[in-house]
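User: Could you write out the 3D structure of this protein bound to cobalamin? I've included everything you need below.
Assistant: Certainly. Input first, then the structure.
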Amino acid sequence: MRSPVRVLTAVPICDGHDSAINTINLEFIRHGIEVVYLGFHRYVSDIVRAAIQEDVAAVGISSYNGGHIEFFAEVVRVLRRKGASDIAVFGGGGGTITQADVKLMKRRGVDQIFFAGTSLEQMADYVRDHYGKRRAKRSGNGDLALARKLTEIEEAFTSGKKPQTRTPARNSHRAQVIGFTGPGGAGKTTLIDELVLRFLHDQPSGRLAILSHDPSVVGEGALLGDRATMINSQDDRIFMRSMATRGQAGGLSPATESCLELLAHSGFDYVFIETVGTGQEAMPFRSKLVDQTVLVMNPDYGARLQLQKIVMLDVAEIVVVNKTDLDRAKAALLEIEQRLTQNKRKQQIVATVAKRHRDRGVDELYELITKNGGTRASGASRTAQRAVPTAAKVKSR
Ligand code: B12
């Protein structure tokens, strides 16, 4: 079995027309394509960086506000300059792109432009027929080569082979790996992006990798949309890779462990791994996979009894109650604290409002993750501990 075709889609800088690309993304997914969506109002440099890191076969741009001749050509030019000329550039913009414009754009290396009236099916077929070829190996040590190695690992799993990965040297640097999990809608992606912002300020020469997951069925398409939320993470010091679960239940993909092993030994200071939104029974990180586990919860989990059923509350080193600006937050913090006390382990609770700029709870979480050298709880003998905010402290914020 072959891996699905992967493309990146985006809307250029100063352009908020995203309704066309949203429709096209959904049609691509329906046709078995994995779509990494970067969002609207995006710079050329962000598009090229994302295309390289995600190792997509092509970049699809939807442009309505003019400037398309220069913008598309610049994406082609920068891709070539970075050694990624095998990534094709295509797109559309309804009646704002004329036949004469397209002639010029093609001369500058754009592969294809679709005019108003083209059916969604025709465009999806074009992508599958033209961008589905197996990619050649890339040598070197940079992001370009790393991204291709990750693709090779994913492809090996899809075709049922175990990937050939080299065992890292004993004393080679290994990144701190932090696993983030929790139910859908708890705010994991926004929280990670805020932590990345703090990392970029705090560690001016450090590098961090993100491995982010979205759900998909075997052989089907997927919308890999975390980049559209992770605005701060679109930075040269951040390597981000979006993965579809490709049929595996539990929050991760069959290839996650091997990809993580590679990333952890690729010179990054940290690797943040984000699962898809998980259910009560999920325990996505086996002990050797991550150094610390962060469970991100929404205060609206229902009745208190529900907490007894969430397995990750027994396992996570840090429990984040996000969205503590919601009415139920104070009660949720008390209930979760009591639930953790039963475990008699060294677990921490942090209250955050990740969507709020400069949130103190996110600052505290960043400190916990980076400065304390980990909070790994090793035995049942430790007492439950709430180092960070109490419900009362949250109220006073
Ligand atoms: C919907 C729309 C809006 C909505 C946008 C909603 C949203 N979130 O996207 C609203 C009302 C908000 C809006 C606002 C504005 N709009 Co407006 N808008 C349109 C409109 C009516 C439709 C565009 C669209 O979505 N088409 C649907 C797509 C699916 O079909 P299509 O365009 O025919 O595209 C085909 C192919 O090109 C292909 N395609 C398109 N993109 C891609 C990408 C890929 C990867 C692929 C493979 C294919 C592909 O798919 C289709 C296949 O049939 C057009 C007019 C028009 N009829 O085109 C104006 C239009 C684009 N808007 C225009 C303008 C001026 C504006 C505003 C600046 C108005 C203002 N003064 O405030 C603002 C700017 C908004 C912003 N922030 O950037 C102008 C642009 C003029 C120009 N560039 O010279 C247009 C052309 C209207 C006009 N005739 O004046 N707009």
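Residues 9, 15-21, 23-24, 60, 62, 64-66, 90-96, 114-118, 123 surround cobalamin (CB under 6 Å).
User: Perfect, thank you.
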